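# nightly structure sweep
# worker-07 picked up a monomer target from the shared queue
# config: single-sequence mode, recycle default, output format = structure tokens
# input follows
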Amino acid sequence: MTDTTRADLTGFQELQPAFTHAEMRHRVFWTGDGPPVLVMHELPGLTPAALGFGRRLAARGFRVYLPLLFGEPGQDDALGSYRALCVSREFAKLQAGVSAPIVDWLRALATDISGRHQQGNVGAIGMCLTGAFVVPLILEPCVTAPVAAQPGAPFSATFRAIGLGRGPWMTQLNVSDADVEQAVLRMRRDGLHLLTGRFEKDRVCPAERLDRLQRDFGERLIRRELPGGSFFNPPHATLTAEYDRARNDPDEPTHKWFEEVVGFLRERL
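# output follows
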């Protein structure tokens, strides 16, 4: 686990006071100038890799808002976070087919961010645990550039480890079917697209989950499958940890994927 007392928040400022909605209160950090993008961190927490992703987006001309959904800045503890969220009411105990209360807080935050930018459009990026959270965020009129990076909940620890344990969980999302249906209607009405991506060998976000999104969103979905990894070392975090491991190779799949995300945001914001 990262020493959270030494979290590097260089370049970030914090909204004051912490954003509160429906009796939920969370800290929000921001950096950069330009069109606003709401980035929701992954299961390990607001890791150094997640903060680095925020800085990279800001360097490309966006104001990036990173809410701290749980833990402390700099935390990198997937197992500890999983245990805590399994009993968390804010996250609906990670139940499949349920939009957790934290989603209402995120929707309110997106609207607040829009107001800070003259009622402007907002991009929304979810990753891993929060990947599918962009779906109910689409119900907010200000959200026009949603990105679901490797939506990873629910998941099977057995399948992640050894590739066994296939089942209904593979097509499920941690948002409600009603929110999915309403998001599809809004996207068709307003001509929007949902950008989604995963690694081909990812066993936290299986291909069946993107198949489900493809069935739901049809031509409104832009789907990407990144090569890389192996059966014994399946990659997962397309925009954070795996990008960092690829270093500065512009031809590496995660770097191409990052450029596509930047282009998607610029076009729609």
